[in-house]
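Please check the following.

. . .
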Amino acid sequence: MSLTVSNRRPSSDGRPAIVVDNVSKRFRLYREKPSSVKERFTKLRGAVYEEYWALKDVSIEVPRGTTYGLVGSNGSGKSTMLRVMAGIHRPTSGSVNVDGRVSALLELGAGFHPELTGRENIYLNAAILGLTRKTIAAKMDDIIEFAGLGAFVDSPVKVYSSGMFVRLGFSVAVHVEPEVLLVDEVIAVGDEDFQRRCFDHLYKLRNSGSTIVLVTHDLGLVQGMCDNAAWLDKGVLKKVGRAPDVVHAYLDQVNEVETKRIEEKSKPIEVTDAETVEAEDIADVRSSHDLVEIEDVEFLDAEGRPTLTITPLEKLTMRVHWRAKVAQPEPLFSFAVENEAGVYVANPGMQPKPTWRDIPAGPGYVDYRMDELVLGPGQYTFTVAAHDHAGTTILHKRERFITLRVQPGNTLVLGLIDMMGTWVPPVSMAKDDDQFEVAPGPFDMAQEQ
């Protein structure tokens, strides 16, 4: 096993910033905890413990200058992987090589001394990261301003709130010009304003060439911000690749597990000889998730003909075919649109209306009509779902069920969508707007020649 961390400036020879090669990490879980120092030494050799493998033969490469996401359920080994990269944990087997100065934000107030002031802790933490006192002093005002500590910066950190802790820790971590930044799910602790400033700074770091490894449960953030990602499940690497592909694979497993759980809850009650169960009682205890099924989805053009290709600003109808096993009170429907990069473009959903009707058992369909399609050229994947009348329970969901290709048309649309606005003639606020001469444009000059 080995762990190598280099503090020199990253090279531009195309080598990855982080290489994790067949890393495994084992922890010992002791059944009995010693209650004294004497017991700790006398019983250590004969203590009974269980081995827990947090990571099992994990190999990933993080390209330099990219943002890399680690996804997975709780206990999957994401945070352990981040700590191995940071050098906090040494791998039981395998090797980790990190090329560049590492800055890590893993826990609230990690490394802070409670008796030192905020300013003193800034010097201490930055010095640990390899910065000189002169460099730290030059960045001090920016660090304090970003953390929003004000007069508290010269107070001991033991009087800080948890929010002040995380703001100061994040501010130090991102202002020391890290070449490799490791961030665990600590940003979510801050308020909305702080989170926005954090993400703005992360984007600046990414654009400046820093390598960022991010552990988060916010899959939208992974899809929108990360270039690549890795999915860990109980310490095993399940998938690596483009962030949208990894997120989709992870969601597929989550949906599969949820479906099995729903099916288990939906099993009918066993009727014994000693009791009888009415049909209404069985319906009451069954899960409602299997009572409406989305059977098909199709797109219809302006003439009502099925199509999978369209051009911008054309009329389009999405028709969702469903089948209800029993009558449902005022169900609602929604769909989500993703582009080829996995970025969510829209997520329209029905709004409850007084005129909405119940649906009887059997087949049916519902339409979503678009007088003008606002999507720009590209390929879009649609996820469709049926909900209960309150919109809080998903009755059925079809992930990435159908794909629509939007082809270039007569109207030029640059970007994901057409804003559908209209430019009005410019209004001059100058007093003598009728006395100035307009400089000739390139077409006017060509005509004169």
In short: Residues 289-406 form a domain with the Coagulation Factor XIII; Chain A, domain 1 fold (CATH 2.70.50.60). The longest helix spans residues 243-266.
